[in-house]
Design a protein that fits this description.
By secondary structure, this protein is of the alpha/beta class. 33% of the residues lie in helices and 14% in strands. The strands form 5 sheets. It has a 6-stranded parallel β-sheet with strand order 11-10-9-12-13-14, covered by helices on one side. β7 (80-84) and β8 form a beta hairpin. α3 packs across α6 (179-197). The chain is globular, with a radius of gyration of 25 Å.
Length: 360
């Protein structure tokens, strides 16, 4: 089935049947959404143009979606603008935190099982799989095919990994000047990337054990990525991780920034952004998550620890984590946390004069 999706709109899927995930409130559902297919607690929703027209030989025809530096987004708490029959509706960070309130039954359940009140959002790159090594190998293969020399210095490699493909091919490597040659190299680069991606059969070390613990605790999880949904599900199925995730934000959702992906994932899980924890390895992703009032666990690896100092918690591997760590991230948050309060001056009551009556 198909559903039309604008590039600047939140698209909530049909109610999730995953563990700890409740149905999305009716006020967030778009009338343009036709039908979603629900399989094993996973939401599938294909966007218009992502079928045969959007793919060639199973490869998306948008190479810049993988090798690109995305905008951070939500610098001032802004979110999306969704379109309804009665006019546009602006949905920002504060709006979601206010409207995605727990109902009475949810509050009762979360009082007994507090871990289910959280929502975990995993980035794809270097959090789920080692895409850093994958991208380097892809660039080396392209250089070998084109008879080019691939640079070995660390500074150039860092630019290649984190800059857009257009900038790398034109300014860093100087492999393409004409537009036609640039498009040819980008298409070949993307083809090599997906060919190597489908060969991956192991996730990041310790991830599966961590997901098992989360699954036992009943915490809903989501993945955000610029990959298309078909290839992502194929990779997850091959690595045996598909059952752990109840929501996906992929290329078909048409998100315009990293923050938009995080907000869309929170909406699909029916969790307030302020109750979500993002697992990231990139400082830009950490900033985007904080702009959405989310907590962040930074994974040291692709970036050194000193570049992840803005994360609420930084770990070298998943083996350092436990479910209790998630509770501690929110332990300091109360209804009046960080609110301005008047200083209370402790004034002792005035002393009373004791009057003694003497009887003579």
């Amino acid at each position: 089935m198909e559903c039309s999706i604008r590039s600047s709109s939140l698209v909530p899927p049909s109610p999730l049947s995953g563990r700890g995930v409740t149905s999305i409130p009716a006020k967030f559902r778009l009338p343009r959404l036709k039908v979603s297919i629900k399989r094993s607690g996973v939401v599938f929703c294909q966007a218009t143009g992502s079928g045969d027209k959007g793919f060639g030989n199973g490869i998306p025809r948008v190479p810049g979606q993988v090798f690109v530096e995305e905008a951070i987004g939500a610098e001032y708490g802004e979110g999306f603008e969704t379109f309804r029959m009665d006019g546009p509706l602006k949905v920002d960070v504060d709006y979601l935190n206010d409207r995605l309130q727990e109902c009475f039954l949810q509050r009762v359940r979360h009082s007994m099982k507090p871990d289910e009140a959280f929502g975990l959002i995993f980035s794809w790159d270097n959090v789920m799989v080692d895409t850093r090594s994958l991208k380097l190998n892809v660039w080396k293969q392209l250089a070998s095919e084109e008879g080019k020399e691939f640079p070995e210095d660390m500074h150039t490699r860092k630019l290649i990994l984190h800059a857009a493909a257009d900038h790398v091919l034109r300014k860093v490597l100087c492999w393409a000047e004409e537009e036609s040659e640039l498009e040819r190299l980008k298409s070949r680069l993307l083809k090599l990337y997906y060919d190597n991606l489908l060969k991956l059969d192991k996730p990041i070390e310790g991830l599966k054990v961590w997901l098992d613990a989360i699954y036992t605790a009943g915490i809903p999880c989501a993945i955000v990525s610029s990959l298309d949904r078909m290839h992502m599900h194929e990779c997850l199925q091959k690595m045996g991780l598909k059952k752990y995730f109840q929501a996906f934000v992929t290329l078909e959702d048409g998100m315009e920034s990293i923050a938009h992906r995080f907000l869309s994932a929170a909406l699909k899980m029916d969790r307030k952004p302020s109750k979500c924890v993002v697992f990231e390895d990139d400082p830009r992703g950490i900033t985007a998550a904080h702009n959405c009032t989310m907590m962040v666990v930074g994974l040291i690896g692709a970036h050194p620890a000193y570049e992840l100092d803005q994360a609420d918690l930084a770990v070298a591997s998943y083996s350092e984590l436990s479910v209790i760590n998630l509770r501690r991230l929110f332990a300091h948050k109360g209804s009046n946390f960080m609110d301005l309060q008047k200083q209370i001056i402790d004034k002792s009551p005035p002393k009373r004069k004791l009057m003694t009556d003497t009887i003579y």
